[in-house]
Amino acid sequence: MPARTWFNGQPANSVPADNRGLAYGDGLFETIAVIDSRPRLLSYHLDRLTLGCQRLGIAMPADPLAPARHVMAGDGVLKLIITRGATGRGYASHDQAGADCVLQWFPDPGSLAFTPAAPVAVITCRQRLARQPALAGLKHLNRLEQVLARAEWRDPAIADGLMFDTDGLLVDGVSSNVFIVSGGHLLTPRLDQCGVAGVLRRLVIERVAPAAGFTVQEAELPAAMLDQADELFLTSSLRGILPVAAIDGRALATQQVTQRLQRQLCEMETLGHV
Amino acid sequence: MPARTWFNGQPANSVPADNRGLAYGDGLFETIAVIDSRPRLLSYHLDRLTLGCQRLGIAMPADPLAPARHVMAGDGVLKLIITRGATGRGYASHDQAGADCVLQWFPDPGSLAFTPAAPVAVITCRQRLARQPALAGLKHLNRLEQVLARAEWRDPAIADGLMFDTDGLLVDGVSSNVFIVSGGHLLTPRLDQCGVAGVLRRLVIERVAPAAGFTVQEAELPAAMLDQADELFLTSSLRGILPVAAIDGRALATQQVTQRLQRQLCEMETLGHV
After folding, report:
1. Fewer CB within 10 Å, N- or C-terminus of chain B?
2. Are residues B135 and B32 in the same domain?
3. Residue ranges, chain A, pLDDT below 70
4. What is the pTM of this model?
């Protein structure tokens, strides 16, 4: 449970029953790591939220994290939900309706630092992702596919599940993005048909990989690419870069490039560059 | 706004901020016409809800309409939302978590009787539906595609928008199902990839069409079928059978078969058979 919740800037533990996030998943969310009272990668989170609001036609609130500003002490996680403002029953919305804003503060989540993490195991999920370019890349509230995929495992030793789209292309993890190292090249799935474009994925593409001497190619990655991968890693704005040591129990031999990227990210954070 | 709202059986105007319907659209809904205090086609609504709960792995509440039983006077609309019970942050759910239940009562909605309605105009929507067999047919809470499609028109003279999937097949209306009459045959889109399997669609297939001497074929209907259609009609559990007189301004000549089905449905309701 969150320690504090706000609805439209006011302390509240609930949202109106006619909220369109509840009715239709008509909104977006962000989950933001807070380190030493400072939201990490905030401009990237706000960029994605702004883009999402533009594409869904929702009015982006001016300063959605304001209510939490004097409450965030130490480390924690902020969850922000923006929904289209309430309307009557039915899908139609009104141009002039503002947005509704739910903000939750979860303190003391354990270590959030980008310290290099140990390799993890993943599975491949049976649940596929539908191809819907209108929603691709956004962190919107229509997440039943992820809920169904996450129900495919209970073993706490599994860090995430890899997801493929209905054409069999690799897309992302249930709650992470995925990169492949193959023949010294860095590849990540193009997210123009489905998937969430994570903020750490963006940081790796734009800054971490280049600083370590790599360029990342966004590509269509058929499932068979997994068998040819030298290395595989996940990215998550809360968990950092996670080297994958096993897929469905099959071991991946090395994490050399991945570890270089982990060290690069850690150094950037230590120097205050992220 | 609804006149009355209940959360898990208790009067309430709000739902907890950690509700999974809000967080992920992790649930289902039904919109039920109430005529003379009696929910119409209730067994069909509950059948669809039960199937949805099974497919999503949500515990179906025992008697979800109970709180409204002594409140429903005259005519109105009941909206019922069932979500997976609240969990912590993250997609994972717990087996033992019960469901949460939001019930809203909207009285005096205007005429709900299945009296034959006048022909209507529709448009074809640009927004496509993604193909996702795991969710096809269900009235789940992930409805951003419908929200985006519904934003394509404001003209109140447009009764609904026709939607196609990403392969170009006809699926349904934004808030209705669709039937085609072609060469004396009745066709409706198969809903195994996307779309909501409406309760009036089921009634027409199982009882109204047979009683009027027709069988309905569920088929893949390419967009071009619209040009060959002699008649087109929509079905909605609130609005009944709606003959379509124009698609994107192009007139459809006859509504003969449709009107026969409208009369059949009206007769069944008058005799208390639905």
Report:
1. N
2. no
3. 1, 95-97
4. 0.97
